[in-house]
């Protein structure tokens, strides 16, 4: 394991990404790390990724991560939860990685649109810009809106507006409406 003190969740994410890649499990990093890649720098104590993994696969991954010396907890969402399940992984220093097993409304092409970002001699898969903004519009918490607004401002000329609108519609009317408001604000 790479982390050797608290505050190194990104290093823990590298370890978890290695495990996911070794099993050919598609993933895309989201949250504060993705925000930074898309021009929005903010502090966060954990790392997040979305993965293409059924619940049974998440249970096996949890067991394997624990065998590697990491702690993990698998929580299943209910019918109202947009996240089917979440695997929270932590190390002995309190670093944490949350793996989301899907997101209701998410386009399955999200993994193919992820960008490869170099870090410590490794390539990490980070959610693409349009997926990032659409997910933030769907989540629609205050920090999510700030992140989406800043990502649009930093990347306005390179956003595929048609794709962004399509992805937001998949998350529902609320996300689509939020994207339109954010785009109008950025003109």
Key words describing this protein structure:
5-stranded mixed beta sheet; 187 residues; Beta Polymerase, domain 2; 47% helix; alpha+beta; 2 domains; 8 helices; two-stranded antiparallel ribbon; globular
Could you give a short description of this structure?
By secondary structure, the protein is α+β, with helices and mostly antiparallel strands. The protein has 8 helices and 7 strands; from the N terminus they run H-E-H-E-H-E-E-E-H-E-E-H-H-H-H.
Descriptive report:
This protein has 187 residues and is an alpha+beta fold. It has two domains: 127 residues, Beta Polymerase, domain 2, CATH 3.30.460.40; 60 residues, no CATH class. Helices cover 47% and strands 20% of the residues. Helix 5 runs parallel beside helix 7 and helix 5 crosses helix 8. It is globular. The mean pLDDT is 94.
Radius of gyration: 16 Å
Q: How are the strands of the largest sheet arranged? A: 1-2-5-4-3
CATH topology of the largest domain: Beta Polymerase, domain 2
Describe the oligomeric state of these chains in a short phrase.
single chain
**Tell me, what's the shape?**
globular
CATH architecture of the largest domain: 2-Layer Sandwich
Task: Write the topology of this structure.
Blueprint (H helix, E strand, L loop, with lengths): L8 H14 L4 E4 H7 L8 E6 L3 H13 L3 E6 L8 E6 L5 E6 L8 H4 L1 E5 L2 E5 L2 H11 L2 H14 L5 H11 L1 H13 L2
Parallel strand pairs: 2-5
Antiparallel strand pairs: 1-2, 3-4, 4-5, 6-7
